[in-house]
């Protein structure tokens, strides 16, 4: 740019002050980008702009001829200061993407989508239907997403929980009959316009059928979904299954269950509970037994609502008369051995009234209600190996492959370890700031108890080994000694140390010392079949006292539904997650009187503590179900 002519110096000062006022807003203490409708974000570019500005002021004072270019340069720099990153290409791409997205939203279809999303968020069906009718009048083309939002609102407005009186009036203003008619009309228009439905479409229609109290129609929709090549989900079966169960149509409910099995959809706690309830109501004791075995294999611990239904069954008259008065004791024992312990699958043993109570299990695995010992169900070593391989794949998908491969190589050279310490969890447990001394005390406690033949492995993120606190002479000496002993591994920057200590514990078949409940998304990726069983047998919890750290070993029994050789049952509830502070409640169900002639007097099996850590043969949870059916 070339300037010709004169320039008023006061205009220059005004321009500079204006630009400075924009820059100073970056340093305003109460500045909040969320509250400011037009915020200026401070970044590396902003800092560079200020530096360039001061340099330009110095040059300006020495070269008056450059004055005319100054305001233009400042303007350009201040525009760059608003960009989140100094890269010109990334800034351009971001602006281009924002522009395209804005164009999409500003189309009639985009505005309709945005408004329907707000209706879905607030459960406002009446407004959504108004938008739908207006779209038909304006000839706005509707896509699959539009139709699915409308069908979703029609199917679940009655179950929504409005947060304001206005939303409550909106939901109540659309009666059930109108919602059903409107839902069918929307689906028919969807077919006329040749919009291909998906799983969400059929699920919403099935919910409409359930509200119409027509589970047969809901089941037919699921079959149509399968014929159309759409794989049903668990939520797709809910309307039909719960509808049949509420009507007491047990046989039809079993048909839905069979269809789920053929499609590879596994039921959860609520679905199995509904089947148990309808079986109990219709006095089908054999089906209750089958479903309890399925609950044991898939759910392991039961919720409070499931516990109530199970208690109701054992207290019912039908439960008293169901069962065998005489049975093959040898066959029952073989069933326990084949199943890996904790169940036999031979049916109800004995007859008579049941004694049902809520109770606790002591530290030795003995029921405080009936004095029977629970069993420790072993884990197949092949399952452990497969689980370690699967976890390695998950970790490589979520971590930098080179970093995790480097750790695996290090572990192969320095391992195996008998115990692994989650350093971050232990170092921060009940501490205001990270404590290296607490990790040291835990290491010493592990050695004193003989839990590890060699020094345990400490996994710590690299950022824990830097900074003023880590550089104190005492802590620096501790860290250096751990490094020299080969018992410390520092995970690299940007990594999640949970992957590292968990993989080390699984691959080394060792104990892991941590109070982490392992409930976040990382552990959910590992599934609900093997991981809870492994965690139960390998996690050592920690508590602190004046005598030092106290270790709470894995229980000498499996926290899973168990059926004894004498026909009694024990059901663990879900609990609070912290069994150290609040012991888990169990449901104990035993016959009041058992014919002594039919049951041999055998001593209950008390598993040894060492069996917790030795992984022997076991069967898979899904094979358990197959043996029951």
Automatic annotation (TrEMBL):
PROSITE patterns (UniProt xref): PPR
EC number from the UniProt entry: 3.1.26.5
Region (Disordered): 46-66, 84-106
Keyword Plastid recorded: no
Keywords recorded for this protein, A-Z: Hydrolase, Magnesium, Manganese, Metal-binding, Mitochondrion, Nuclease, Repeat, Transit peptide, tRNA processing, Zinc
Catalytic activity annotation: Endonucleolytic cleavage of RNA, removing 5'-extranucleotides from tRNA precursor
Annotated Basic residues bias: 50-59, 94-103
Any single GO CC term annotated in Swiss-Prot or TrEMBL for this entry: mitochondrion
Gene3D superfamilies named among the record's database cross-references: 3.40.50.11980, Tetratricopeptide repeat domain
PROP1-like PPR domain sequence ranges: 100-320
PPR repeats: 198-232
Molecular function per GO: metal ion binding; ribonuclease P activity
One Pfam short name: PPR_long
Residues in PRORP domain copies: 361-588
An annotated GO BP: tRNA 5'-leader removal
Keyword Zinc appears in the UniProt entry: yes
Enzyme class: hydrolase
Compartment list: Mitochondrion
Co-factor(s): Mg(2+)
Family per record: Belongs to the PPR family. P subfamily.
PANTHER family named in the record: MITOCHONDRIAL RIBONUCLEASE P CATALYTIC SUBUNIT (PTHR13547:SF1), PTHR13547
Protein name: ribonuclease P
Organism: Zostera marina
Taxonomic placement: Eukaryota, Viridiplantae, Streptophyta, Embryophyta, Tracheophyta
């Amino acid at each position: 740019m070339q300037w010709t002519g004169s320039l008023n110096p006061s205009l220059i000062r005004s321009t500079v002050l204006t630009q400075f006022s924009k820059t100073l807003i970056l340093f305003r203490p109460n500045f909040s980008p969320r509250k400011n409708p037009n915020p200026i974000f401070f970044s590396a570019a902003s800092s560079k702009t200020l530096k360039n500005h001061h340099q330009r002021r110095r040059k300006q004072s020495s070269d008056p001829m450059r004055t005319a270019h100054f305001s233009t340069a400042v303007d350009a720099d201040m525009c760059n200061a608003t960009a989140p990153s100094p890269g010109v290409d990334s800034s351009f791409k971001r602006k281009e993407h924002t522009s395209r997205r804005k164009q999409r939203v500003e189309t009639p279809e985009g505005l309709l989508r945005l408004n329907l999303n707000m209706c879905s968020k607030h459960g406002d069906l009446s407004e959504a239907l108004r938008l739908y009718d207006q779209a038909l009048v304006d000839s706005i083309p509707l896509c699959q997403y539009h139709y699915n939002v409308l069908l979703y609102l029609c199917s679940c407005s009655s179950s929504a929980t409005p947060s304001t009186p206005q939303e409550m009036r909106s939901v109540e203003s659309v009666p059930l009959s109108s919602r059903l008619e409107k839902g069918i009309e929307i689906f028919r228009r969807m077919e006329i316009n040749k919009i291909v439905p998906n799983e969400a479409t059929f699920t919403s229609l099935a919910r409409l059928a359930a509200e119409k109290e027509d589970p047969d129609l809901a089941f037919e929709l699921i079959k149509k979904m399968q014929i159309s090549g759409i794989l049903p989900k668990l939520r797709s079966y809910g309307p039909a299954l719960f509808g049949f169960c509420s009507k007491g149509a047990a046989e039809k409910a079993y048909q839905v269950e069979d269809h789920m099995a053929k499609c590879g959809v596994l039921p959860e706690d609520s679905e199995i509970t509904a089947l148990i309830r309808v079986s109990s109501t219709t006095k089908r004791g054999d089906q209750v037994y089958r479903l309890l075995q399925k609950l044991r294999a898939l759910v392991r611990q039961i919720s409070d609502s499931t516990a109530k239904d199970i208690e109701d069954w054992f207290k019912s008259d039908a439960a008293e008369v169901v069962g065998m008065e005489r049975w093959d004791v040898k066959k029952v024992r073989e069933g326990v051995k084949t199943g890996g312990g904790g169940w036999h699958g031979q049916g109800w043993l004995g007859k008579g009234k049941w004694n049902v109570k809520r109770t606790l299990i002591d530290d030795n695995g003995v029921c405080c209600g009936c004095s029977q010992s629970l069993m420790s169900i072993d884990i197949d070593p092949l399952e452990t190996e497969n689980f370690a391989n699967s976890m390695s794949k998950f970790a490589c998908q979520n971590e930098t492959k080179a970093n995790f491969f480097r750790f695996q190589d290090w572990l192969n050279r320095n391992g195996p370890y008998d115990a692994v310490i989650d350093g971050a969890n232990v170092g921060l447990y009940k501490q205001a700031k990270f404590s290296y001394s607490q990790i040291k005390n835990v290491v010493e406690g592990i050695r004193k108890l003989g839990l590890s033949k060699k020094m345990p492995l400490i996994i710590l993120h690299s950022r824990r080994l830097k900074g003023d606190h880590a550089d104190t002479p005492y802590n620096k000496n501790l860290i250096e000694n751990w490094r020299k002993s080969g018992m410390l591994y520092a995970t690299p920057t940007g990594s999640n140390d949970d992957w590292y200590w968990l993989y080390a514990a699984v691959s080394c078949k060792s104990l892991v010392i941590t109070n982490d409940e392992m409930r976040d998304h990382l552990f959910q990726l590992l599934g609900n079949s093997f991981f809870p069983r492994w965690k139960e047998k390998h996690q050592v919890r920690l508590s602190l006292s004046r005598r030092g750290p106290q270790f709470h070993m894995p229980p000498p029994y499996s926290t899973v539904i168990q059926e004894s050789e004498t026909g009694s049952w024990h059901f663990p509830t879900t609990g609070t997650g912290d069994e150290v502070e609040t012991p888990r409640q169990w449901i104990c169900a035993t016959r009041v009187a058992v014919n002594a002639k039919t049951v041999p007097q055998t001593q209950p099996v008390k598993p040894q503590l060492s069996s917790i850590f030795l992984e022997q043969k076991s069967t898979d949870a899904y094979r358990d179900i197959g043996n029951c059916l």
